[in-house]
């Protein structure tokens, strides 16, 4: 008895990979499908048998039905052929003599074929399009003409250009910065210098609280990369704040390029030298190694 109960509990959990998961439903659907298939086959067989009997008992009905089917097929064919000929402007061969023009040359006769419907439709549609285009773009001003579209696209391109340049400008860092030979960055950096740097370095870079920026003595290096790094991170021990918290990388690049223009300008009342001397800047053919060599020689002399 216990064995039978266990089998009854295990039967519903049978895993079926196909079908609904219920064995009884699957059997039912299979039987229904087979019955419908059998009915379809039987209907086809009965139809064929009835037609065979009709041919034997009433052959004139079959012939009439066949004739009517052939006429319907021919009518459909003639309809589509006529529609095609009309669309293409073609005439039946029987009407060729009616289309011959009176004159001929060297035995060649010309037919007065009408203009195809598709050509006329294309021509009139272009005329209609031209009128509608004129009204929309030139008379009522609903749409933009090509000049207005050009101006709109150029304005959009200029906006995208400025956004790209602004994004590119902020990609400056102490490793990628170089001297701007055009002078545009330095020109922009002059105002930044006047606003933020004059209090410590003087209006002409002669120095004050901060070191002299117009001589060849630099505490933290006098190349463009060194200046950018100093401005960006500041010198907290000497009271110079990190300007990266206030200025963008583009603005730091501009003020760094302006400081480069202060080299050897010999302003009035310069502050005394601080740091090692740079004999030759990179722009003069020098290098960081020459600066280091100058520093070593100064230390040796002292």
Automatic annotation (TrEMBL):
Q: Which organism is it from?
A: Sphingobacterium tenebrionis
Positions of the UniProt region annotated as Disordered: 265-302
- Bias-annotated ranges (Low complexity): 284-302
A Pfam match is: FixP_N
| UniProt KW Methyltransferase keyword | no
Instruction: Give the residue spans that cross the bilayer.
Output: 27-46, 117-140
The answer, when asked if Signal is one of the entry's keywords, is no
Full protein name: Cbb3-type cytochrome c oxidase N-terminal domain-containing protein
Q: Which residue intervals define the domain Cytochrome c in the entry? A: 184-263
| Keyword field | Heme, Iron, Membrane, Metal-binding, Transmembrane, Transmembrane helix
């Amino acid at each position: 008895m216990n064995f039978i109960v266990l089998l009854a509990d295990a039967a519903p959990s049978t895993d079926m990979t196909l079908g609904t998961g219920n064995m009884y439903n699957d059997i039912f659907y299979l039987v229904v499908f087979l019955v419908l298939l059998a009915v379809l086959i039987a209907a086809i067989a009965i139809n064929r048998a009835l037609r065979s009997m009709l041919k034997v008992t009433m052959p004139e009905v079959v012939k009439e039905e066949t004739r009517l089917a052939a006429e319907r097929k021919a009518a459909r064919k003639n309809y589509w052929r006529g529609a095609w000929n009309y669309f293409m402007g073609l005439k039946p061969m029987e009407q060729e003599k009616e289309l011959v023009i009176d004159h001929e040359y060297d035995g060649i006769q010309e037919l007065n074929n009408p203009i195809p419907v598709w050509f006329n439709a294309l021509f009139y549609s272009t005329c209609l399009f031209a009128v509608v285009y004129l009204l929309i773009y030139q008379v009522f001003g609903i749409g933009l003409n090509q000049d207005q579209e050009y101006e709109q696209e150029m304005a959009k391109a200029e906006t995208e250009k400025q956004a790209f340049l602004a994004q590119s400008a902020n990609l400056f860092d102490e490793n990628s910065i170089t001297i701007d030979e055009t002078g545009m960055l330095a020109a922009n950096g002059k105002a930044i210098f006047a606003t933020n740097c004059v209090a410590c370095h003087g209006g002409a870079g002669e120095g004050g609280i901060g070191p002299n920026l117009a001589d060849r003595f630099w505490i933290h290096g006098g190349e463009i990369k060194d200046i950018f790094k100093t401005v960006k991170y500041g010198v907290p021990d000497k009271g110079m704040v990190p300007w990266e918290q206030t200025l963008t990388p583009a603005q730091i690049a501009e003020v760094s390029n302006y400081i480069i223009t202060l080299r050897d300008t010999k302003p009035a009342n310069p502050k005394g030298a601080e740091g090692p001397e740079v004999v030759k800047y990179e722009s003069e053919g020098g290098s960081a190694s020459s600066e280091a060599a100058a520093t070593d020689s100064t230390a040796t002399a002292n």
